From TrEMBL:
Biased amino acid composition, Acidic residues: 217-228
Protein's recorded name: Uncharacterized protein
Segments of skewed composition (Low complexity): 39-50
Chain residue ranges for the region called Disordered: 21-50, 200-251
Coiled coil: none
Segments of skewed composition (Basic and acidic residues): 200-210
Length: 265
């Protein structure tokens, strides 16, 4: 599903060109959040002969409340699997201090300690103290867009449904230096590889595959009837145990996730 379809709440901004003069504002051109659009003639700057048409989309950003759909998801920069899938170059950059990351795990602990609530089978597990930049694309105007988002988040009045202290996002490899220059820090996230079976479904035993336990014969029954009843009871109990064992989950694999976090003022 597209993020625009599932993110709730959602707000954002967009930038459109006005004239080839940098910094010009068009009072009639409004963003999603109601702000004037900034002119960003990146195309003409890189190619003076390129024509810039008024109203061309130069950038956009959407923001929502951070939500997960895994019960086992948690922020943990110190877990062995948090950086287990880094390539050699990234691992060396982190070791040499060329990457901004949660070195001592303190930021991850703060994030994990924030309030969260919800059902992963319905609205998801919502983290009302954490905002997420779900989509950002820009041609030469990424910095003012991101600054505008952070300014907006810091100025929002606190509500029961959201009071943002942090901003998180996932970054492509090429965009990591940009986000780090804006104050974002890499934080480790892990989750178990869940089999996505509801608890009531996982705990239920298939009654069709289980034979009812017969009552033992009374004292006046002969020994052969008693032996047959005991054998049937033993087989029935074994089937019950096999059915329960089939419901047990195998050890879950831990999956890591790379997330960048900004602490709002």
């Amino acid at each position: 599903a597209d993020r625009l379809d599932v993110d709730d709440p959602i707000f954002g901004f967009y930038v459109r060109t006005t004239t080839p003069t940098a910094g010009v504002k068009s009072p009639g051109d409004k963003s999603v959040g109601g702000k004037d659009s900034l002119a960003s003639p990146a195309a003409s700057a890189s190619n003076p002969s390129a024509s810039v048409t008024e109203g061309m989309l130069q950038g956009f950003v959407t923001v929502t409340t951070f939500t997960t759909w895994q019960k086992t998801f948690r922020f943990d920069s110190m877990h062995d699997s948090a950086c287990a899938f880094d390539d050699a170059g990234l691992a060396q950059d982190m070791l040499n201090g060329r990457r901004q990351y949660d070195r001592h795990g303190e930021l991850a602990e703060e994030l994990q300690a924030t309030v969260r609530c919800g059902d992963p089978w319905n609205e998801g597990i919502v983290w009302p103290r954490i905002a997420e930049i779900s989509l950002l694309g820009a041609l030469g105007c990424g910095k003012p867009l991101l600054e505008l988002v952070i300014e907006r988040l810091e100025s929002l009045p606190a509500k029961k449904t959201r009071n943002y202290d942090y901003v998180v996002l996932q970054a492509t490899d090429n965009s990591v230096p940009f986000y780090e220059s804006m104050g974002f820090v890499r934080v480790g996230c892990i989750t178990e590889n869940e089999n996505f079976v509801k608890e009531e479904e996982a705990s239920a035993v298939d009654e069709d595959k289980i034979q009812p336990t017969p009552e033992l014969a009374s004292d006046d029954s002969d020994s052969s009837d008693v032996a047959e009843a005991e054998q049937a009871a033993s087989e029935s109990a074994a089937k019950v145990e096999d059915a329960k064992a089939g419901q047990q989950e195998s050890p879950n694999e831990v999956v890591s996730l790379e997330v960048f976090v900004y602490r709002t003022k």
